[in-house]
């Protein structure tokens, strides 16, 4: 019997219900793979920030490297969770070790796809930042020229915001495509675009709604840590408490990882097919 998720397009509530059931059934494994990556990175980040000196080039380089590692290892846990979700839906649950092994096999492809996506999205912004820098530091004395360049840069920024918003939604499934769909790089981005085709506003609305919930949960979980920051003086004590709340935030975030995988699997199975030419609809389209 075909699974409901593969046979009909889910509503927002149905996705939330399905994701919650999968999350609770696999909570131990999902929490374990999440903490396996988040805890070591938090401790490494904390040790750097405790002795951080922004004037020290080596410290700055270490922070940049740690941020990159956080992204890459976070991606690894996301891919492992994606395999857990898919296996659970298919009625063939897998162990934590199997999920990690499968994730390691697809992790490089998911990472490369994500890097390409970020390059496409943010390279225009880098150009704009360089333009602003040249305007500020270029020693231009003419007020009229500065105004013209500034207005031009602002117009380009508005265009970039529109471009980034459009393609963030079009490429929103690309990570899961590269993890579960065995497509990489531009092929994964193109496949994600095909999934969103004809449903851009719907996907945008759902992503925005889920993002608001996710942001609200993270904000609420961050309130106690912010309050304790005024009470705890010792950096070690603050770091220890921060580790606890950071772990809780990471586990809460893993639910939304499950949710986005459910979203992907449902929309992949029920994506709109390209319209056929009239002759092919009538059965006259003979391919050589």
Low-confidence stretches: 276-288
- Outline: globular
Oligomer: single chain
- Order of SSEs: HHHHHHHHHHH
Describe this structure in words.
With 288 residues, the chain is mostly helical. It has one domain. Helices cover 81% and strands 0% of the residues. The chain has eleven helices and no strands. α5 packs antiparallel against α6. The C terminus is likely disordered.
Label this structure with key terms.
288 residues; mainly alpha; 11 helices; disordered C terminus
Short description:
The protein has 288 residues and is mainly alpha-helical. Helix content is 81%, strand content 0%. Residues 276-288 have low confidence and may be disordered.
């Amino acid at each position: 019997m075909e699974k409901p998720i593969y046979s009909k397009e889910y509503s927002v509530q149905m996705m939330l219900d399905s994701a919650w059931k999968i999350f609770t059934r696999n909570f131990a494994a999902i929490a374990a793979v999440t903490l396996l990556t988040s805890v070591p990175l938090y401790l490494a980040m904390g040790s750097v920030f405790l002795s951080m000196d922004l004037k020290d080039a080596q410290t700055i380089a270490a922070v940049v490297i740690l941020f990159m590692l956080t992204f890459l290892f976070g991606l690894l846990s996301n891919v492992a969770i994606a395999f857990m979700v898919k296996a659970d839906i298919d009625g063939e649950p897998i162990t934590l070790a199997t999920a990690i092994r499968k994730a390691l096999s697809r992790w490089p492809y998911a990472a490369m796809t994500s890097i390409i996506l970020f390059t496409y999205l943010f390279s225009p912004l880098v150009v704009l930042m360089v333009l602003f820098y040249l305007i500020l530091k270029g020693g231009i004395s003419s007020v009229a020229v500065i105004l013209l360049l500034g207005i031009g840069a602002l117009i380009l920024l508005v265009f970039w915001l529109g471009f980034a918003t459009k393609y963030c939604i079009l490429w929103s499934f690309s990570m899961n495509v590269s993890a579960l769909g065995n497509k990489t790089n531009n092929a994964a981005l193109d496949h994600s675009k095909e999934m969103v085709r004809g449903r851009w506003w719907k996907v945008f609305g759902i992503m925005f709604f889920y993002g608001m919930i996710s942001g609200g949960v993270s904000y609420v979980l961050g309130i106690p840590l912010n309050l304790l920051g005024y009470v705890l003086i010792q950096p070690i004590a603050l770091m220890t408490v921060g580790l606890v709340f950071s772990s809780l935030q990471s586990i809460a975030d893993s639910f939304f990882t499950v949710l986005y995988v459910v979203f992907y699997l449902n929309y992949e199975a029920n994506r709109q097919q390209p319209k056929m030419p009239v002759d092919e609809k009538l059965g006259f389209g003979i391919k050589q």
